[in-house]
User: Fold this.
Amino acid sequence: MNLSNIKLYNSFKSKKVIKVITGIENTNISQIIKIAKASELSHVSYLDVAANTSIVKILKSFSSLPLCISSINPIDIYNCVSVGADLVEIGNYDFFYKQGIYFNTFQLINLVKEIKSFIGIIDICVTIPYHFHLNEQIYLAQALESLGVNILQTEGIFTPNQLKRSFILEKNIWNSIDLSNFSLLSTYVISCYVNIPIITSSSLISLSTPIAKFYGASGIGIGSTIRQKKTIFDMVTYINEVYSSLIAADSIQYSKKYISNDMTIKFSFFKKVLY
Assistant:
């Protein structure tokens, strides 16, 4: 594992990473500050925000948490790194999916090369698109590892009403797993082929968080559920529920044979879907 930020290194080493996503489109400063304060009071490893210099400056003025900015715009990324962003992420593609824009492997690899050329030793995370075939996800993950990418993230299948569904079904573990199946499958498969940390994101809740860890994730990314909470207290309570699930995962005796058999079934099913 190669991470230059010592706080991130320690979090990923313990495999109890919680990344809180304020939203790539979210520039609501009051809500972002509320989420950041809740994160400071709970077990959050780092914040993921829109690539906006004003947001970065405000958060860096009071928050001690490592700050990640998400974008595919090299200029925005450079500007945010210049004012203190600790981590860069190429991901959170939902904004583009809504417009029918889907990136390919060639575009992402070239984008990573361009961005790495000017961010220096700043750590970089790249989301593996869910719509890639599994073999293409593995190829991209290995290519990114060879380029020096520090962290990978997986994502679930995008649907236009995803946020509404997640809210309605957030207390149902089976529906949550259904929504995050693609992300969990990608996590398991990719973790077998690379040696860099993986964040599992998309539709995970406190009940299903341990599954991501069992499948090879070093942590999880959560966002939409937190943004639906009205108070800092409610946000802290929810984040701590997720953290407790990560802690509980360490004490559960889980058979690797069961995981392998379970994922073999999932792999066979999704292979038919994706190929």
Q: What stands out?
A: The chain has one domain: 6-274. The domain at 6-274 is CATH 3.20.20.390 (TIM Barrel). The first strand starts at residue 17 and ends at 23.
